[in-house]
């Protein structure tokens, strides 16, 4: 089977950013560094009120940059902060289907936590806008997990629904993740683990995607 290559785009997982101005400034620097398609915002242990305040500070920045702001696992927060999408992270077919029925197409709805091909295909039958392979909390290991890479590469080859692969914490491993054929590669610590240099890290990630696109076009 021949698959037309599509240059992947960058997604960011912003859940681990600090609350308040420091987190907003870090995200602004990242968004100013180049193309970002999506920003995922999860609670990361925050209580309901703190999470809403956190998301409320980030969502407008994301949208002003032309990216989609997707809130994880909190429908009330997603509505209150006027997010573009809702992410269901628990790997539950039932919860994903319920979210799609309630919120699609008004919101982008996708999910993660599906660890086998069978589970992923069952999730795909609900027609989410995307599936996410990897831990939405972000990846602290230098490279993405082999299981996630294998699932994402398989999915990208046979299913039209887009997928997001959680990349590793080291930009040196990004080419391997991008070469799987996925539409989006998500980064967290690889961008936000370098305070003050977030924009440069986003620029570097996009340079990797551009290099891959040139090599595939040659």
From TrEMBL:
<dbReference type="InterPro" id="IPR022998">
    <property type="entry name" value="ThiamineP_synth_TenI"/>
</dbReference>
<feature type="domain" description="Thiamine phosphate synthase/TenI">
    <location>
        <begin position="24"/>
        <end position="191"/>
    </location>
</feature>
<dbReference type="InterPro" id="IPR013785">
    <property type="entry name" value="Aldolase_TIM"/>
</dbReference>
<protein>
    <submittedName>
        <fullName>Thiamine phosphate synthase</fullName>
        <ecNumber>2.5.1.3</ecNumber>
    </submittedName>
</protein>
<dbReference type="GO" id="GO:0004789">
    <property type="term" value="F:thiamine-phosphate diphosphorylase activity"/>
</dbReference>
<dbReference type="InterPro" id="IPR036206">
    <property type="entry name" value="ThiamineP_synth_sf"/>
</dbReference>
<keyword id="KW-0808">Transferase</keyword>
<dbReference type="Pfam" id="PF02581">
    <property type="entry name" value="TMP-TENI"/>
</dbReference>
């Amino acid at each position: 089977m021949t698959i037309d290559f599509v240059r992947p785009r960058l997604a960011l997982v912003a859940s681990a950013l600090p609350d308040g101005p420091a987190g907003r400034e870090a995200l602004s620097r990242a968004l100013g560094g180049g193309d970002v398609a999506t920003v995922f915002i999860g609670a990361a242990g925050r209580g309901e009120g703190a999470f809403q305040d956190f998301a409320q500070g980030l969502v407008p920045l994301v949208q002003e940059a032309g990216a989609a702001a997707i809130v994880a696992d909190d429908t009330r927060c997603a509505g209150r902060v006027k997010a573009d999408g809702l992410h269901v992270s628990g790997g539950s077919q039932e919860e994903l289907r319920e979210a799609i029925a309630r919120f699609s197409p008004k919101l982008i709805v996708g999910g993660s936590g599906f660890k086998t091909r069978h589970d992923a295909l069952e999730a795909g039958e609900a027609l989410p806008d995307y599936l996410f392979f990897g831990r939405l909390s972000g990846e602290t290991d230098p490279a993405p997990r082999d299981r996630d890479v294998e699932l994402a590469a398989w999915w990208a080859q046979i299913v039209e629904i887009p997928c997001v692969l959680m990349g590793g914490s080291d930009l040196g491993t990004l080419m391997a993740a991008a070469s799987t054929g996925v539409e989006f590669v998500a980064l967290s610590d690889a961008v936000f683990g370098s305070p003050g240099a977030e924009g440069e890290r986003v620029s570097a990630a996009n340079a990797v995607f551009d290099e891959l696109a040139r090599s595939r076009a040659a």
